[in-house]
Amino acid sequence: MDDIIxxxxxxxxxxxxxxxxxxxxxxxxxxxxxxxxxxxxxQIKENELFDLENIINRLKxxxxxxxxxxxxxxxAPLTFPMEFINFLNNEKEYIHKPKLEIYNELAYRETDRxxxxxxxxxxxxxxxxxxxxxxxxxxxxLRYWSREYNINKEIRYKKDKINIIETYPALVKxxxxxxxxxxxxxxxxxxxxxxTDTYDEAICALMGxxxxxNNKFKDLPSLVYPPKNINIYKKEGWIYHFDLEQIK
Length: 248
What we know:
Blueprint: E1 4-11, E2 21-28, E3 31-37, H1 52-59, E4 70-74, H2 82-88, H3 110-119, H4 131-148, E5 151-152, E6 162-167, H5 182-185, H6 197-212, E7 223-224, H7 232-236, E8 239-242
Parallel strand pairs: 1-4, 4-6, 5-6, 6-8
Antiparallel strand pairs: 1-2, 2-3, 7-8
């Protein structure tokens, strides 16, 4: 592994609000070295987007460089369902009523259904719920940053790129305002209060950290990767999450 790796957790807010927040973890020699976070919320300025270098440097002054080893764990969808896109493009005439809402292919991706069937927890729909606001914020930034930086959206970490993954912190908490399960919560600084956006960002950053370490960061549960040889995940993306069988 590289000597120093950074992981940035982003709990995405909407276009107009002030509830975009970021948490940065620095690891050195395969151990968490420092956490960086701010009590201030981040707001997108009118006619602008967040500049990645400015975000990093506001959390920890002047550490950003073009060859930084960085993973960004984003708590928002980075894609819309393929069938929804086809529907808008008039490539799919209609659908029939599904047996359950989660099986509406216009509303949910295959990765959303995986989460539902595996853990009995239904993610919000990027195309049908208010989450679409946050999703378009995340997608816009992903495209914007891709113009400035060498971005990796593949399923494996690449150390010569800035890696971005979609994460799901809610799975490791028994409730929205509860602490994460013990072996995740133990790594989060005591002054990051559970039930806050900052706490969720910290979980996103930890997931990004484990992604960077290819599931070899010993103090964290393993990440669940997408099943192999299923092309839909390459098109629609994957929600990275900790293996709940390793959660204590």
